[in-house]
Amino acid sequence: MAGGGRMRPNILVTGTPGTGKTTTCSLLADATQLRHINVGDLIKTKNLHDGWDEVFECHIMNEELLCDEIEDMMEDGGNLVDYHGCDFFPEHWFDRVVVLQTDNSVLYDRLSSRGYMGAKLTNNIECEIFQVLLEEARSSYAADIVIPLQSNCVEDISSNVATLTNWVNNWSKI
Length: 174
Ligand code: DAT
Hints:
This protein has seven helices and seven strands; from the N terminus they run βαβαββαββαααβα.
């Protein structure tokens, strides 16, 4: 069996904030019955952080606390992990690493309407321009499990969810 004895696969959905991770994971969780782990929310609700970063306006995640928190679920399998970072998770946790990507102008509008401005907005747009998450994923996981997917419009979401649902449903046969 693939995936270290897991009955169901674990998928990491990563990408710059605003690329559609949470929207995609919610729909994919409904379609596959995988468990959606929204890491950003978990960091807040379970206090898995070391305070607030004033410059980047976000919590300073404590990687060790986070990994301890989700370890048992990850070993069981069947999880969709939604986070804008990927290099600190144990590599063996994931069977697929999906990197969502969005055109800069589209992303700019999405992040502005979410209220991002100044350094936070610029940093995230630069993160997308320089494909930081794709590079991070490629340097942390085997090349054949890292899948970049475009997420520019609602049709992209539907087709990404359909593709991934199909992959999940066929997983045990891989
Ligand atoms: P993330 O979890 O990556 O931060 P999100 O799922 O919260 O992103 O989406 C941010 C906003 O953009 C939200 O209002 C939904 C919208 N959106 C995301 N992906 C989209 C897409 N492919 N087409 C149209 N809108 C999208």
